[in-house]
Amino acid sequence: MVASDVDIHQKKYSIVKKTLGYRAWFYFRMGWTTYFAFILAAINTLTVTYFLAIENYPELMAVFPSFEIYIVIITSIGIPTLIFVGYSHYKKTKVFKSEVDILVESNPILRRTTVNADMNLRFSIKLFDLLLKLSKNKISEDELNDAKKIQNEIMDLIKNRSLSNELDMNYMNEKMRKKSDYVLPKNPGLV
User: I want to staple 191 with a disulfide (CB 3.0 to 4.6 A). Which of 51, 76, 88, 187 is the partner?
Assistant: First the structure.
């Protein structure tokens, strides 16, 4: 078990008790904005646009002779349009990627998880490569030093980081956002 796993696990229950009010506030806001406000806004928009705009113009009344027909036409156009806008938001623009960056930057636990995943990947790659070479007695002093360097880097980070300091963010900026400094072996695997 890694030290970072222990400190998060031990604080789990006390964090929940201390933040119960904030959690309830968060759930309330999510329920309100995702469901209740959305439904009210849709009903309000349809009602206001029809009764204040459409009814006052005979040309528009010819296209939308009743409120029910207006709802059917607008929803049949609006729902596919909004699906396309939502799809574009997540898949075609940089907006969602920026939102995720902000979420990772502002959430120390998510930041820690991201950094841990990268450290595990780096260490697993090196460990696997060393195990393969050890099986054929082909490990050199430089390769052993590279493995120790990665191990020391990980251990220093684990010893010194906390959820309130910036070491995880520094690691992300130095090791993950830029091109990786990990050098892949020239002949990986069993050579």
Answer: 187
